[in-house]
Design brief:
The chain is an all-beta fold and about 140 residues long. It has no helices and ten strands. It has a ten-stranded antiparallel beta sheet, with no helix packed on it. Strand 9 and strand 10 form a beta hairpin. The radius of gyration is 15 Å and the shape is globular.
């Protein structure tokens, strides 16, 4: 069953020089529940379609638009992928420290902790927290 949800994404990055950046995005999207997990779909500000699938111990984030990528997060594992741009592909890989999720009938959350490497070089250490709640279920994700 698919339903409309409010989504809040909080992101913190620390680069190789120790500079930190934080951001928060709030949007609407859809949630589909399956027997083994959840799938969220939403659009970024730039129109990129983002699909987040949480099943078992794995979280997959797929972005489709002018820029595209498919990232797989599983605690303790590395995953290589290409960041597709109009000018060509950029090789990247992530080292996942932690990937977890939980959900109930009112909402849920996904928490990712990982290091991002671009072209074989360390780029950033990342903390990403994504929360969702059903429309009308509370103000948590809308604030």
């Amino acid at each position: 069953m698919e339903r409309r949800v409010w989504i809040t994404i909080e992101d913190a990055q620390t680069d190789a020089e120790g500079e930190q950046r934080h951001g928060t995005v709030k949007t609407q999207g859809t949630l589909t529940e399956t027997p083994d997990g959840r799938t969220l779909v939403y659009e970024d500000d730039d129109g990129t379609r983002v699909r987040v699938q949480a099943t078992g111990e794995t979280v997959r984030v797929t972005r489709r638009g002018e820029m595209a990528m498919d990232m797989l997060f599983r605690a303790g594992e590395n995953h290589a992928f290409d960041y597709e741009t109009p000018h060509g592909a950029l090789p990247m890989h992530i080292e996942t420290d932690d990937a977890r999720w939980r959900a109930d009938e009112r909402g849920g959350e996904i928490s990712l902790r990982y290091a991002l490497h671009v072209g074989g070089q360390f780029a950033t250490r990342n903390a990403l927290d994504l929360r969702w709640c059903a429309e009308g279920e509370g103000a948590d994700a809308r604030q």
